[in-house]
Amino acid sequence: MEQNQLPTIDWGVIVYRVPSRRKHRTQAKGPNLIPILDAVFIFIFFLLMSASFIKIYEIPSDVPIVSESSPPTSNKKPLALTLIFEKDGLILKRGVPAKTIGTFGKDQNGDYDLLSLRTRLIRIKKSFLSERTIIFEPRIDVNYEKLIQVMDAVRMFRKTDEALFIKDKKDGVDTKVRQLFSNIVFGNIQS
Predict the structure, then answer these.
(1) Is the Cβ–Cβ distance between 158 and 177 less than 8 Å?
(2) Does 102 fall in a domain?
(3) Which residue of 75, 82, 130, 167 could cross-link 135, Cys pair, CB 3.0 to 4.6 Å?
(4) Mean pLDDT for all residues in the chain
(5) What number is the average pLDDT over the span 67-93?
(6) What separation in angstroms does the CA of 180 have from each of 47, 60, 61, 132, 154?
(7) Structural domain boundaries, residue 180
């Protein structure tokens, strides 16, 4: 008899073999989780591929602070530059009490005259190089896109604008002024 062959019992014509189940007992295995895990990873992959990723841009703006204490005294008059949004256009005021220093209307399309506004702001910036704050006072409901256009016109210098320089307090070196009036404060926020 060969080694790999199971023993058989010969009882005449019929040959019976010893059942193999009795010799080798195997333990029951748990469910196969590999196909389930494959499906879950494919599902996660398709979710990530179908998700739309958008960039959200934030323009920082400060809210006026209400305080009980008196403001610090200074001999220097504040610029208090204020841009008022009206139905017919923009009004630029400065000082306390506020004095109107410019009005900027709308064109036929309803867009503000931002070029004239920028020109006036650059002239003001030449006199107040360290000033960065402007107050927005919308007295009407302003379209979001129009508000952002005005904010962009007020915040930064463009490459085509005249270059302005200020002396650095630490080194005494002239540095280029890169921001026009970048600190935008909303004076009246209506809900």
Answers:
(1) no
(2) yes
(3) 82
(4) 79
(5) 80
(6) 44, 15, 15, 7, 6
(7) 82-186
